[in-house]
């Protein structure tokens, strides 16, 4: 019996350390530090001195931290801040006029799978369906104008773009082409962006907008800033060399 | 009576962040090699550390070692693949009962490099991939694989038999396509 197992030993892999991208590592470190901090305590200044967060991470006083130490005049005295439950963003809920066709589009273009079977109204409208798009849950429903539940086509636009990440810059072009072949319109042409990504924005046939990103190179915020400024000036001045 | 609050959690936080700095490349390396994808390794690494923080907060006596975080990472990987396996079942993509036409268990092994084996592994259905990864890539004993997969030892052994069969099938398919249908018999 044991002889049967041996050939598979070739699959064995030791745990070899691999450093992730520096910006990912720094971002996650911040998240871990935040999670470690007791909800009621002020940020620990000692953490900054012992921290090995790369210097390129800008020190921004995030709004969330400010509200932790500064009582919100609206909720002060109403909600005990220390006992406010932790929240987690769950999912977007899309309203579309023509739910079944939209689901088919998301399946074809984004490889969506149905993670919760649709609840279908007697009149045929989808009351609720849950899709898994690349590991994130997206809920979807048909329009219910009688309850003021309407989609972007009826509203005449959307201020929200949903972000899609693909594994390579080439995949951005491929995905956008697939979306267009299935009826989407291009809002912003795909191009290499100053922030190190190839990206473009499409509007699906139901009016929802999707920003498709693929990483070209990991950049620090300072490098992004530099390129943004350089790019902004190319129309007017040649960029400095050397 | 003066009540002194327990010291704020600075020291434990510092210890955990030190662990983060040490363990991060190991955890990321572990997850990247097994998930076969950078885009997957990053969110799984993040989930791992955030789950480790929660567990540490509930049980501050937890010894902070890289091995412990790797064990958390393994659980996250199992959770991920289980979810994928459910989707695959939903799509009826799991091809079970693939015949073993040669009936020779070990025929595929000659001149067969690890990297190629991992390519075959990454093409398998999630159910099979996870079983082989825990048993062979991580070299865990069958009862431990059973515990991680929430199965009986017997059911795990059955799953491993199927997974090995699927692996051999995948290996032959890869070689058939490489040798363009020629009589490539080892």
Plain-language structure description:
Helix content of chain A is 31%, strand content 23%. Chain A is of the alpha/beta class. Mean pLDDT of chain A is 79; it is low at 1-5, 40-81 and 233-242. With 186 residues, chain B is mainly α. Residues 1-11, 92-112 and 180-186 of chain B have low confidence and may be disordered. Helices cover 68% and strands 0% of the residues of chain B. In chain B, helix 1 packs antiparallel against helix 2 and helix 2 crosses helix 3 (66-90). Chains A and B meet through helix 2, helix 3 and strand 2 of A and helix 1, helix 2, helix 3, helix 4 and helix 5 of B.
Topology:
The complex is a heterodimer of chains A (242) and B (186).
Chain A: H1 2-5, H2 22-36, H3 45-50, H4 63-69, E1 93-96, H5 99-110, E2 113-120, E3 126-133, E4 136-142, H6 152-155, E5 161-166, H7 169-181, E6 185-192, E7 197-203, E8 209-215, H8 221-233
Parallel strand pairs in A: 1-4, 5-8
Antiparallel strand pairs in A: 2-3, 3-4, 6-7, 7-8
Chain B: H1 10-35, H2 38-58, H3 66-90, H4 114-122, H5 126-137, H6 142-149, H7 153-178
Helix pairs in contact in B: 1-2, 1-3, 2-3, 3-5, 5-7, 6-7
Relevant terms:
heterodimer; A: alpha/beta; four-stranded mixed beta sheet; 8 helices; 8 strands; 23% strand; disordered C terminus; B: 186 residues; mainly alpha; 7 helices; disordered N terminus
Strand order of the largest sheet of chain A: 1-4-3-2
Biggest sheet features of chain A:
4 strands, mixed
User: How big a fraction of the residues of chain B is strand?
Assistant: under 5%
Number of strands of chain A: 8
SS-derived structural category of chain A = alpha/beta
* C-alpha geometry of chain A: globular
- Overall geometry of chain B comes to globular
Mean pLDDT of chain B: 78
Contiguous helical run count of chain A: 8
Question: Average pLDDT across residues of chain A?
Answer: 79
Percent strand of chain A: 15-25%
Helix content of chain B: 55-70%
């Amino acid at each position: 019996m044991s002889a049967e197992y041996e050939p598979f030993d070739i699959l064995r892999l030791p745990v070899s350390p691999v450093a992730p991208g520096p910006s990912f590592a720094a971002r996650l470190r911040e998240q871990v530090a935040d999670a470690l901090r007791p909800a009621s305590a002020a940020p620990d200044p000692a953490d900054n001195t012992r921290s090995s967060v790369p210097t390129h991470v800008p020190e921004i006083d995030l709004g969330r931290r400010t509200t932790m130490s500064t009582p919100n005049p609206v909720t002060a005295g109403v909600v005990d801040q220390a006992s406010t439950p932790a929240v987690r963003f769950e999912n977007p809920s899309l309203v579309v006029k023509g739910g079944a066709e939209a689901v088919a589009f998301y399946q074809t273009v984004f490889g969506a799978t149905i993670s919760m079977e649709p609840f279908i109204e007697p009149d045929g409208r989808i009351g609720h369906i849950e899709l898994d798009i690349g590991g994130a849950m997206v809920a979807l429903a048909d329009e219910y104008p009688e309850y003021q539940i309407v989609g972007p086509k009826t509203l005449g636009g959307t201020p929200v773009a949903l972000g899609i990440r693909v594994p390579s810059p080439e995949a951005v072009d491929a995905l956008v082409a697939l979306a267009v072949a299935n009826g989407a319109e291009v809002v912003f042409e795909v191009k290499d962006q100053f922030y190190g990504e190839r990206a473009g924005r499409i509007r699906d046939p139901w009016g929802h907008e999707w920003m498709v990103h693929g990483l070209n190179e990991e950049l620090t915020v300072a490098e992004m800033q530099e390129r943004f400024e350089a790019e902004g000036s190319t129309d007017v001045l040649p960029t400095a060399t050397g | 009576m003066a009540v002194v609050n327990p010291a704020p959690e600075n020291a434990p936080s510092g210890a955990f962040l030190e662990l983060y700095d040490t363990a991060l490349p190991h955890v990321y390396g572990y997850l990247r090699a097994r998930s076969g994808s950078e885009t997957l390794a990053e969110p799984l690494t993040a989930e791992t550390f955030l789950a480790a923080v929660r567990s540490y907060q509930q049980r501050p006596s937890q010894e902070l070692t890289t091995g412990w975080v790797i064990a958390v990472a393994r659980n996250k990987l199992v959770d991920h693949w289980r979810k994928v396996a459910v989707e695959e079942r939903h799509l009826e993509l799991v091809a079970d009962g693939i015949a073993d036409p040669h009936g020779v268990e070990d025929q595929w092994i000659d001149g067969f490099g690890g990297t190629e084996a991992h390519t075959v592994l990454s093409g398998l259905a999630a159910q099979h991939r996870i079983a082989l990864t825990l048993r062979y890539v991580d070299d865990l004993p069958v009862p431990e694989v059973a515990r991680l997969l929430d199965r009986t030892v017997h059911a795990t052994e059955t799953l491993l038999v199927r997974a090995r069969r699927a692996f051999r099938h995948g290996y032959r398919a890869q070689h058939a396509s490489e040798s363009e249908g020629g009589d490539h018999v080892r």
